[in-house]
Amino acid sequence: MSTPLVFKFGGASIKNAQSMHNVASIIGRFNHRPMVVVVSAIGKMTNAFEEIVSKWSSGKFEEANTKIDAIATFHQQIINELFADPTEINEQVAAIISSIQAGLSRQDMTYSEGYDYIVHHGELISSRIIAAYVGIEEPTVWHDTRDLVKTDGQFRRATVQWDETSRAIRSNIVPDKINIVQGFIGSCPDGRPTTLGREGSDYTGAVFAFCLGADSLTIWKDVPGMLNGDPKTFANTQKIDALPYNEAIELAFYGASIIHPKTIQPLKKKGIPLHIKSFKDPSLPGTTIGDIDQPEPTVANFILKKNQILIQLSTKDLAFIAEHHLSAVYNLFAEQGVVVNLMRNTATRAMFCIDNDAIIVPKVLPKLTRQFDIELTSSVELLTIRHTNEEDEIRETGGLDILLEQRTPYTVQFVFKRF
């Protein structure tokens, strides 16, 4: 048996019935190979499920149920376009919708546990539809990733338990069929659903590739490959043809949206190349991330994070910021699921640029104010330039109100407000 291919299709690639038909066509090109196909929730469904979480956590159950009904209708329309006889797939999706509704009555969950319980259903629905549709033409099997990817109990950012996960994946993947699995999700030791972090389906693909010793992982995107910046934000972006593992790790760490931060490490460990290809034109060569020395071509990379908040802390007793202060802050951040995108400290002040999460930040700030004096600056953005030069910096920061700047030998970051 040849080693398997692992494909990952994100929400943009399966946003409607025609898109799903295109995905099935791409899969059909490789039906002579063992294959694992990782799928995300359809289109912007994760955002829709996050709205349900918000309403559930606020006690707005009627509004949450209205949103669930709208989600069910949206998927029903896609099913009706794809299937001549949708009876079986309708029953499967209806069972998933019922599971979501049952979760709304539970008040014994923390916000993060409730988030994972509700949001992961998007992947369950999309993968059921894809498996049924691909199965019309190809031998296909659907798997519940909660049974395969074993994690700890850190909801919203669970850590994979590699030995258990490897055993589960190896014993369940069927070599002579197309195996359809969900990205982003897993389960903790007591069976409760967990998620691997926002956009974590890429990481799921890497987990399956690692555990199966795959030939490669291919992530199918709506771009011709990896660009050196988001073309919606930066002018004159260039495609990167090839990228070393370590450079890809750095870019993902700083927030390059095309790669989930955890994706590269397992691939690097086994020397598995990552291909980023276009689902709009599968014939294009795309970008390969692998064991090479230098990027091809070598260009500056630009990453912009919006909706950030800058928190500046100082001690109430005017003491220096010491290790125990930073430890207390990071313990709180870890407990609450705060994502720190830039940190800098001086003798008397610690500064953190974090994602301005509408649920988490209001819970964290009161706890910080018990120990520290706080200065907040909201509506800031974080610009990271990797392999920068003076011309790049002048062009990208001209006219901005720079609040914080941090440099390393290869990277510069600016926290700023727009006028």
What do these coordinates show?
The chain has helices at 17-28, 45-57, 61-82, 87-104, 111-119, 121-134, 162-172, 201-212, 245-254, 264-270, 323-336, 360-369, 390-397, and strands spanning 5-9, 35-39, 140-142, 178-182, 185-187, 193-195, 216-221, 226-227, 239-240, 242-244, 274-278, 287-290, 301-315, 340-345, 350-355, 372-386, 401-407, 411-417. By secondary structure, the chain is α/β, with parallel strands linked by helices. It has two domains: 5-221, 3-Layer(aba) Sandwich (Carbamate kinase), CATH 3.40.1160.10; 301-417, VC0802-like. The strands form four sheets. The protein has an eight-stranded mixed sheet, with helices on both faces. It is globular, with a radius of gyration of 22 Å.
Basic shape: globular
CATH homology superfamily name of the largest domain: Acetylglutamate kinase-like
Would you tell me which CATH topology of the largest domain applies? Answer: Carbamate kinase
Helix-residue proportion: 25-40%
Radius of gyration: 22 Å
Reading off the top of the CATH hierarchy, the class of the largest domain is best stated as Alpha Beta
- Work out the helix count: 13
Per CATH, the architecture of the largest domain is: 3-Layer(aba) Sandwich
Uncertain residue segments:
none
Instruction: Report the sheet-strand fraction.
Output: 15-25%
**Structural class by helix and strand composition:** alpha/beta
Outline the biggest β-sheet: 8 strands, mixed
Separation, N- and C-terminal Cα atoms: 60 Å
